Amino acid sequence: MGLMAVSVTHFAIMLNMTLRLTKEQFKEAGYLHMYSSYAMGIAAACLLGWNLLMGATPGFYIAACMLNLFVALIGFITFSVQKILYW
């Protein structure tokens, strides 16, 4: 239940930041980055929701944890690459 709260909070923050981007900033971040981040976030939320509704399965929980980690990792890598390319 705790990871689901973290996932929902992370999604709300991502959506808020995405909606505040200008068209140019959105293109700079990259469509692949946006699609992959949201797809992994939604997949993690679905796995966690499945765990809440149908009973806890360790494999789904671990997969959701990894997907949440990958979403944060993709954001960090994209941000880092953009900073390096601007220097």
Spell out the key features of this protein:
4 helices, elongated, 87 residues, mainly alpha
Could you characterize the architecture of this molecule?
The chain has 87 residues and is mainly α. It has helices spanning 2-19, 23-29, 31-54, 58-86. Helix 1 (2-19) packs antiparallel against helix 3 (31-54), helix 2 packs across helix 3 (31-54) and helix 3 (31-54) runs antiparallel to helix 4 (58-86).
| Strand segment count | 0
SSE pattern: HHHH
The assigned structural class equals mainly alpha
CA distance, first residue to last residue: 42 Å
Report the sheet with the most strands, covering strand number, pairing sense and barrel closure. Answer: none
Shape: elongated
Cα radius of gyration in angstroms: 14 Å
The count of helical stretches stands at 4
Share in helix? over 70%
Average of per-residue pLDDT values? 84
Tell me the strand percentage band: under 5%
> Spans of 5+ residues with little confidence (pLDDT < 50)?
none
